[in-house]
Amino acid sequence: MATPTSGSSAEDGGEFYVCRCFFTNNFYLKDYNVHVVYRDDAQFGEDYKQVMKKYGCHTDNQWDQVLAQVKSELERRQNLFQQSLERRKQIRTEYRPLHPHVYTLQESFFAPEFLELVEMSRRSDTSPEDVMKFVTSKPDDRVYEFPVFTKQFCQQFMEEITHFEESNLPKGRPNTMNNYGILLNELGFDEGFVTPLRTDYLRPMCRLLYPDWGGDALDSHKAFVVTYKLGEDLDLSYHYDNAEVTLNVSLGKEFEEGSLYFRSMRQVVQSHPSYQEHRHRPTYGLLHRGQHKHGAMPIEEGERYNLIIWMRSSKVRNQLCPMCDQKPTLVRTVGFGDGFTKETKTVDVCCAS
């Protein structure tokens, strides 16, 4: 008989971690649209002072501003998880939801087509080819579109997000690339909404569509809402997600343009880059591999809300961190962290002395 010596997933109560590279890699400089690595001032100056001139950073004052921005981001990351925990506690105590029922996932929230797709995906005799009959995709890009929610749910969900945005409570933003948005775990959506959505509804279809990306073992997530409107965030720069599989659902409202575009997987170098464009349709979701590089074109009119769920498989990322391409060096954190776990080892207790 074997027994585990350490936990490994949210479902069995295990602990999650971040990779140490979270505190050094992929610092985004929005003014220059570039990601950088910062370990200390000497390394950063040697690696980037000349390089940044190609991006328009020519003066000493500009360089000082870049350095200050990087150090500010480092400080934010060092305090991120504790501050997020404090915000969540305050929100839980002080916030009064507009639509309390949307915090608990109900099948009435889903489009009938989505429920049919999920039911078929749950059957043991279903093949990937069967699933393909229920989704829309373009040749070879493995980006799948399908209805997810009802229009009524999307409207109430957006009203809830807007209600919270208009409150005076503190708000954690999803990442440094989006200035406007809400982290759903801080608002209280994880346990009753996002986790069952991932485990009971999305994982069955990911098992069939992305078996090579841990689709059958998506054991954590990061979920957030982003907004795009004139005068605020208009677009999203070309990037890849810190996820194995991503679901991006367009909730509404009325908007023009702002399509999502995909090029290659991040490991692929294209000599002649081309892209596939996917238009956002309210209530519809786009499911794609997190490492599939993509961006959002500028919105030209109106306002758009998107629900983003980065789904992670510790089975995949424990072998190679997608942000530094190294075996992850684990740093303990709170919540799901970045989805890393300590490898589960077994001991034969029948033979152990």
TrEMBL record:
The keyword Transcription does not apply. One of its GO terms (molecular function) is iron ion binding. It holds the Pfam family OGFOD2-like. InterPro entries: Oxoglu/Fe-dep_dioxygenase_dom, Pro_4_hyd_alph. Keywords: Dioxygenase, Iron, Metal-binding, Oxidoreductase, Vitamin C. Residues 219-313 form the Fe2OG dioxygenase domain. It comes from the Eukaryota. Its cofactor is L-ascorbate. PROSITE patterns: FE2OG_OXY. PANTHER family: 2-OXOGLUTARATE AND IRON-DEPENDENT OXYGENASE DOMAIN-CONTAINING PROTEIN 2. This is 2-oxoglutarate and iron-dependent oxygenase domain-containing protein 2-like. It comes from Branchiostoma belcheri (Amphioxus). The gene is LOC109464371.
